[in-house]
Please model this.
Amino acid sequence: MHIKDTIEGSFHIVGGDFSRAGEASTEIKSILQSLGFNKEIVRRAAIATFEAEMNIIIYTTAGILRYEITPERIKIIAQDMGPGIEDIELAMQEGYSTAPDWVREMGWGSGMGLPNMKKNSDEFRIDSVVGEGTTVEMVIYLDNTKD
Amino acid sequence: MRVDDLRDILSLQVLTEGIPLDAEVRGGYVSDLLSDVMANAKEGDIWITLQTHLNIVAVATMKGIAGIIIVNGRRPDEETLKKASEEGIPILSTKETAFVVAGKLYKALNVKEI
Model:
């Protein structure tokens, strides 16, 4: 690890643009790799970030994916202008999804996105207002790295 | 075992052009659910699927997948192949089912390792 200060950045994600899916999270993964984090940290952050990016693409009009890396932790914030989530508890259940059929046929919308994000984060917060949007905040600690 | 060894053993058709097939294959994963692959596939796996759209390349890139085998004779879109070439992910195809391909792959990898 070679960071002293905070490293941060953000990506605008356009909802419905499947052709650019994964671009932002691949970029964030490259940044983490270039900082020399161990593979397990990079793997977890990559999964969590990718799923957050996909949710913005699948369900919303637009969103922002932000990352903030300090010597202690990686924080990923996904904020969207989407329909919001009516029942967060239900949405967090593995296998539950509101995705339309055409999205499921692509192999998305299997109800694993939010659970995958939570599983790979040390801290996971989700705030949603129906009709306004959803914000997901994920933190992965760096002090338990075993390099 | 490398991707080109698998191409020969499984008689796979290589669909991507100009991508080296020298990546080491460490294992395999069979799934058509992309979040499942994100969560459970490992770096160096061959991914066996019937999905053909663009996003399989993004998932494979993210996970460090050695190559994608598309089964049941399905043909990926041109934009999928273009993206795969850009990202350096080989895509191969076969008329056989995921079951048969996985069985042969499992056998091939184990024989090599024993």
Q: What stands out?
A: Chain A has five helices and five strands.
